[in-house]
Design a protein that fits this description.
Distance between the termini: 37 Å
Strand content: 15-25%
Order of helices and strands: EEEHEEHEHEHEHEH
Radius of gyration: 22 Å
Number of strands: 9
Low-confidence stretches: 60-69
Strand order of the largest sheet: 6-5-7-8-9
Number of helices: 6
Shape: elongated
Length: 234
């Protein structure tokens, strides 16, 4: 193993550095792939046996409790389970509170039969004033600074019930990130529609998943969250 001087110090470190991003306490919800102490120790001991003495543990800072006022709420509306899956990953990665938008009147299979032009979903999407009622309320909404809102794409837009949610709470001083799912269509139209419809809300970006990209959801969510944290720290 070759060693070099660390900066202007007299410390000699190995040319190879072991990144410890996945080491820590899984119960902390730092990352879904976090290794526990026993598994981490095996890797570290092997690295030491190889002569590596340079370890990057910077990601450990993210395991610290959030600063006051930085609590995260992960809200989602889902019918097939795809949006719920993404919401769960985000909640696991961030340690945020997970909250499901449940319609006061649940949607039936007939309600979602898009081939029927008169089905409930089509009637709502064709009516810009439709606001389906939500069964429950978020407790202590004012305590959350960052809100993730997830939904499926219905005819290129967010379901009207998402507008019900947006109009039910004060979003001043909150940063809102959306995520959406669809069979194959884009999520750009829905995201832009929400931004244009609610210019007073600070929408900070959308992450969209088609059915073919759900298999990479864990990695894409982690990458997106990393981008968000970098942007917020800038």
């Amino acid at each position: 193993m070759e060693y070099v001087r660390l900066g202007n110090s007299d410390i000699q470190v190995s040319r190879f550095c072991l990144g410890c991003m996945s080491f820590g306490d899984p119960a902390s919800k730092m990352h879904a792939w976090t290794l526990n102490t026993d598994e981490s120790e095996k890797i570290i001991r092997h690295a030491l046996d190889l002569g590596i003495n340079f370890f990057d543990t910077a990601n450990g800072y993210s395991a610290q409790p959030p600063e006051e006022g930085e609590d995260i709420l992960v809200v989602y509306f889902s019918n097939t389970g795809n949006t719920e899956r993404i919401a769960q990953i985000i909640a696991d990665e961030t340690g945020g509170t997970l909250w499901e938008i449940v319609p006061e009147t649940p949607y039936t299979a007939a309600d979602l039969n898009y081939s029927d032009s008169d089905c409930r979903a089509n009637r709502e999407q064709n009516d810009p004033d439709a606001r389906p009622a939500i069964a429950d309320e978020v407790e202590n909404f004012e305590e959350y600074d960052r809100v993730f809102i997830g939904h499926p794409i219905w005819w290129g837009d967010a379901p009207r019930i998402i507008q019900t949610f947006l109009e039910s709470y004060p979003f001043a001083d909150k940063r809102v990130y959306t995520f959406s799912t669809s069979g194959s269509s884009s999520g750009n139209g829905a995201y832009n529609g929400l931004r244009e419809g609610y210019p007073e809300i600070n929408f900070a970006g959308n992450l969209h998943f088609t059915s073919s990209r759900l298999s990479s959801a864990q990695t894409r969510v982690a990458d997106r969250l990393s981008e968000i944290l970098s942007a917020e720290a800038a």
